[in-house]
Design a protein that fits this description.
Blueprint: E1 9-11, E2 17-19, H1 27-30, H2 48-57, H3 62-68, E3 81-83, E4 92-93, H4 110-119, H5 125-130, E5 134-135
Antiparallel strand pairs: 1-2, 2-3, 4-5
């Protein structure tokens, strides 16, 4: 976590950086001062680094994301920015990407999490297509 930038920046060892402009210096989404275990298959909606590491390690599967039914993806927003992405998200239309059809307020924000995980190289083209992303 680089707190010298605005917004704060998460650096990953694959060369990607992640910024959450909607929450430029908020401790909770970045995990600053918050502990969460990644040694679990239960998806942690926050802090964001833990959510990402669970998916990257395979502790949380696509099926578990579909079944979880969580409605706590507010930290993934339209302005969530991956710097130096592994995958180019501009090749997809993300408007219908989602895990499930919950009626909660942040259902629409699922697409930003899916897009972010694709850009970070966690989920493949096939994964995001299975979640509703459409190739352009």
């Amino acid at each position: 976590l680089d707190r010298s930038t605005m917004p704060w920046t998460l650096h990953f060892d694959n060369g990607c950086d992640l910024q959450l402009p909607r929450f430029p210096t908020a401790p909770v989404p970045y995990g600053y001062g918050y502990m969460q275990t990644i040694e679990s298959t239960k998806i942690a909606p926050w802090p964001v680094p833990y959510t990402i590491m669970q998916a990257a390690r395979g502790d949380s599967t696509i099926d578990s994301w579909k079944q979880q039914g969580l409605d706590q993806w507010q930290y993934f927003a339209s302005d969530t920015t991956v710097i130096n992405p592994v995958n180019d998200s501009s090749k997809f239309n993300w408007s219908e990407a989602k895990f499930n059809d919950t009626t909660k307020a942040t259902t629409g924000e699922q697409k930003y999490l899916i897009r972010t995980f694709y850009e970070l190289g966690i989920w493949s083209k096939e994964d995001v297509i299975s979640l509703g992303a459409k190739e352009k």
